[in-house]
Write a structure and sequence with these properties.
The protein has helices at residues 72-84, 88-110; strands at residues 12-16, 22-31, 36-44, 53-57, 61-63. The protein is of the alpha+beta class. Among the domains are: 12-63, SH3 type barrels (Roll), CATH 2.30.30; 72-107. A hairpin with an 8-residue loop joins strand 3 (36-44) and strand 4. This is IDEAL domain-containing protein. Residues 73-98 form the IDEAL domain. It comes from Brevibacillus gelatini.
């Protein structure tokens, strides 16, 4: 891991375990004195590792970029993850965001579509009608 970037609890990371397993997850604890982080594994090439805590040396970890989760399907996946990890605050935050998105979608559907006609400088339609 980059020495300038300090890993913090709850940061999303990916890396390799001592057994060579590729893992993705979030930091549960970070021990900078020993140079080890305990990672809750969400994805792995070894199915048995998923859902477990593994200790990984800090240099073997890479912080994942945090993106915005604007897609409804992504929000559903994250809500499932919040339930699995029993993170009530995150669950409430995600469900509020999902409800907001659904409300915005229903409001945009209820609006009348704008009607317009394309005209050229002579006042006739510039689009071929079929």
């Amino acid at each position: 891991m980059n020495r300038n970037a300090k890993l913090e609890i709850s940061d999303w990371v990916m890396g390799k375990t001592r057994h060579g397993e590729l893992v993705q997850g979030f930091a549960e604890t970070v021990d900078t004195w020993r140079g080890i982080a305990r990672i809750f594994v969400v994805k792995s090439d070894n199915e048995e590792t998923i859902g477990k805590l593994v200790a990984i040396p800090l240099p073997w970890l890479e912080r994942m970029s945090t993106g915005t989760f604007d897609d409804v399907e992504q929000l559903h996946d994250l809500i499932d993850l919040a339930l699995v990890t029993k993170d009530e605050a995150w669950f409430k935050e995600l469900t509020a965001k999902l409800q907001e998105k659904q409300q915005m979608a229903s409001e945009s559907k209820s609006r009348k579509p704008r009607s317009f006609s394309a005209q050229n400088r002579l006042g006739t339609s510039a689009i071929w009608e079929q």
